[in-house]
Specification:
Rossmann fold; binds adenosine-5'-triphosphate; four-stranded antiparallel sheet; disordered C terminus; 29% helix; transport; six-stranded mixed sheet
């Protein structure tokens, strides 16, 4: 039986009398990179927050490696899930090196110092995220992109079985966007990532899940999901899909000021999620 690091089973979140996430079922297999995309306010961050336990779902279950997340001690789930989230705070006046080392907290007892292996792990993560030269800088003095890379390094050193990232390319220049997403392709990582850039999502993800108004409306490989019909229907944008000349991944070309379809209008032509790709 294949290992299943994450299974969302009928996940629902309600707040203020509104359904923010509606019976979302989705799995992330070992070594898989699954992208979560959708318009603003479609429930992506809310779903992710249930996985890293910033939010308790009102219905359904999050299974982490076959165990109900709600029954796991927080410290244990922190060893299983590392998050780079919108609220990953760096309000503490710590150095970059200290912030990255905080990623080891779930593995330490009390004030136990980092081992030589852990210190090397932190330095390697800083090197991979191109922040090693900032190691002694106060994190509050960093630019938005530098800070984002520090937080990504902190998530990596947690060595969790599952990495969840909410718009990790925020603030990053294109070189660092490509570098960070390239790191996610590490065969040792299992990843659920919220992305807005559908072209980058198509390049990095094994599968893409699309949320619209809290509900899963499509899931499948990039070729199955990134279509002109879906982009028109879910995002209300007219686009042309072309294959990437080197990889064949679908890439979207947008024409500014072209006629746009109202979001949700293509529901009729899209059919059900199951008919458009593998089952969630
Ligand atoms: N605590 C809350 N109470 C009421 N509504 C909320 C709460 N948290 C989030 N929402 C609403 O739920 C919806 C989904 O929010 P969420 O942040 O999950 O969307 P998203 O898909 O991540 O959006 P974006 O692409 O803009 O980041 C939004 O309309 C948001 O305003």
């Amino acid at each position: 039986m294949t290992r299943e690091p994450l299974r969302l089973d009928g996940l629902s979140v309600e707040a203020g009398g509104r359904a923010l996430v509606r019976a979302l079922s989705l799995t992330v297999g070992a070594g898989e990179v699954v992208g979560l995309v959708g318009p603003n306010g479609s429930g992506k961050s809310t779903a992710l927050r249930c996985v890293y336990r910033a939010l308790r779902p009102t219905g359904g279950t999050v299974w982490l490696d076959g165990r109900d997340l709600a029954d796991m001690p927080l410290r244990e789930s922190a060893r299983g899930v590392a998050a780079l989230s919108q609220e990953s705070g760096t309000e503490l006046d710590f150095t970059v090196e200290e912030i990255v080392a905080l990623g080891r907290t779930p593995h330490l007892r009390g004030n136990q110092p980092l081992s030589a292996r852990e210190r090397a792990l932190c330095r390697e993560a800083m090197r991979r995220l191109d922040v090693l030269h900032l190691a002694d800088r106060g994190v509050l003095t960093l630019s938005g992109g530098e800070r984002q890379r520090v937080l990504a390094a902190r998530a990596l050193v947690q060595e969790a079985g599952l990495l969840v990232l909410d718009e990790p390319t925020n603030h990053l220049d294109i070189r660092h966007q490509v570098a960070l997403l390239g790191l996610l392709r590490d065969p040792g990582l299992t990843v659920l990532v919220v992305l807005h850039d559908l072209n980058l999502a198509a390049a990095v993800c094994d599968r893409i899940a699309v949320l619209e108004a809290g509900a899963l409306v499509a899931v499948g490989t990039p070729r199955e999901v990134v279509t002109e019909e879906l982009v028109a229907g879910v995002f209300g944008v007219a686009a042309t899909v072309v294959p990437h000349p080197l990889t064949g991944d679908p890439q979207l070309l947008y024409t500014l000021n072209s006629s746009t379809a109202p979001a949700g209008a293509a529901e009729a032509v899209r059919g059900t999620p199951e008919s458009r790709g593998s089952r969630p």
